[in-house]
Amino acid sequence: MDIALETEALDVRYGQIQAVRSINLVVPKACITALLGANGAGKTSTVMAIAGVVPNVSGKVSIFGQDMTGATPDTIIRAGVAITPEGRRIFASLSVEENLILAGAATTKSTTSAERRAMMMERFPILGERRRQLAGLLSGGEQQMLAVARALMSGPRLILMDEPSLGLAPQMVDTMFAIIEELRAEGISILLVEQNASLALEIADHAVVLANGKVAAAGTPSEIVGQDILKSAYLAA
Ligand SMILES: Nc1ncnc2c1ncn2[C@@H]1O[C@H](COP(=O)(O)OP(=O)(O)O)[C@@H](O)[C@H]1O
Ligand SMILES: [Mg+2]
User: Fold this and answer.
1) What are the pLDDT digits (tens) for 136-148?
2) Which ligand is nearest to the CA of 43?
3) How confident is the model at residue 109, as a pLDDT?
């Protein structure tokens, strides 16, 4: 199995609080790996630790076979990793285009930032139409599309998506999941954090369930779906 991302005994601490406990995670290449679990289970902390953003981390992280333990966010971006953060974190008071320009500063590909912006506007025509509009005026779904476009600006091979469907209208949730499946079809590896477990399990190739900062279950969606461990992981918080 070709592996995009692997963590070994990953721990994350915030002072006295241990948010993530010895997590071993494997994200195969060109697959969707769902990371599931209740609020507070440690999903965002895991993602942020992989992205090199959280400081109090121990354990090992390797990305496309390279040891990235303790690497800076910058190095991790250059290794081909992008993130769509929880809550989208776009710049509401900047235009759509300015949001893409800022994301393009981290571009790793031979294409220029302007070329990649043009590609994003072609890929997501609504962003092209609204390029001069303030990002804060977009709908939730359009803002999430912008967050995905920002992530794609660096030409990533692995995307960490933290709750991309949160707060979206049902139709936009379907659109967003279709986009995630398209990215996989293009060969991009995806770690998909979702509260909506049943939906995530519909498109995922593999799933990992966290409870109280630990891996409670891992396997294929058919191995996980309907299991008590999934239900109890969600009831735990
Ligand atoms: N910056 C922080 N400082 C202190 N505790 C935090 C911080 N971020 C998260 N936590 C705690 O870590 C645990 C895991 O949180 P988080 O990773 O956000 O979970 P999830 O994304 O699964 O909801 C929770 O108990 C949460 O309160
Ligand atoms: Mg979270």
Assistant:
1) 999 999 999 999 9
2) 1
3) 63
Q: Are 140 and 168 in contact (CB under 8 A)?
A: yes
Does this model's pTM top 0.85? My answer is yes
**Ligand 1, atom 4, residue with closest C-alpha:** 14
Q: State the distance from the centre of ligand 1 to the C-alpha of 18, rounded, in angstroms.
A: 9
In the predicted structure, residue 224 carries a pLDDT above the cut 50: yes
Adjacency order of strands within the sheet including 32-36? 81-84, 158-162, 189-194, 32-36, 206-211, 214-219
Domain ranges of the chain: 3-80+157-235, 91-155
Ligand 1 atom showing the smallest separation from residue 47 Cα: 17
Pairwise CA distance, residues 154 & 218, whole Å: 30
Of 34, 63, 87, nearest to 210 (Cα)? 34
| pLDDT digits 0-9 by tens, 169-214 | 999 999 999 999 999 999 999 999 998 898 999 999 999 999 999 9
Pocket test for ligand 1, best of 12, 20, 25, 45 (most atoms within 8 A of CB): 45
Is CATH 3.10.20.310 correct for 3-80+157-235? no
Q: Which residues surround ligand 2, an ion (CB under 5 A)?
A: 43-44, 86
